């Protein structure tokens, strides 16, 4: 009941209008319009598939690797989109904040919901690819929403933290761009975990403590193939295997405290 009171009908209306406006502005003046939400990950998939699968022969030991790769790209695209849009959510709406009194968190929430809608569309494309290629449906597919929820919560926590820091420190945008680049290669998206494992078991285990890596691998296991190496299958120690979840909880807590502490100064700091 307390949560329902905080998340009022007015807040839901504001969030809905912000999401709709964001979609309209994002593709305004574009010939293909909303199709870019589908084409962007598909074009990236095509490039990575040709380079890393066809030429460099990545993923030969992974069943249905093209679908495996596409799902990783779709989930990563959501993560980058949600955090990048969340990063600018407060600063870009500075004019609104000075004129209208409303809960500041709806700006960040709306930006991530917009990315979540794109994710849903792209997951539908992945599902169609699975049916066309005969990849089959895994019985564990019912657990995929839990993976999506964990990824969304982590991205949302980062969005709250980054958007708050961005108000006072505009360099955060450039720093986060570099961090995402490094994060991309530190996450098994274009390469299977087995490649790292063959060279160093310790490195593979450290890699899988990354929450995004854990989530993407779990999603691949649940949706594409049970040959996927997951954090729980690689790390025997239950506490170490729980580290990605603990990191997500830590970021939720810190981001919530930081956002609430700084929110009242947004209008004057922007």
Description:
- This protein is mostly helical.
- The protein has one domain (11-269).
- The protein has helices at residues 2-6, 9-26, 36-55, 65-88, 94-99, 105-133, 144-168, 172-185, 193-199, 201-207, 211-223, 231-234, 238-241, 243-262, 266-269.
- The two termini are 34 Å apart.
Question: Could you list some keywords that capture this structure?
Answer:
single chain, 270 residues, mainly alpha, globular, disordered N terminus
Largest sheet: none
Percent helix, as a range, is: over 70%
What separation lies between the terminal Cα atoms? 34 Å
Number of helices: 15
- Which residues sit in consecutive blocks of at least 5 with pLDDT less than 50? 1-5
E-strand count: 0
Rg: 19 Å
* Fraction of residues in β-strands: under 5%
> From the helix content, strand content and strand pairing, which structural class follows?
mainly alpha
Q: What global shape is seen?
A: globular
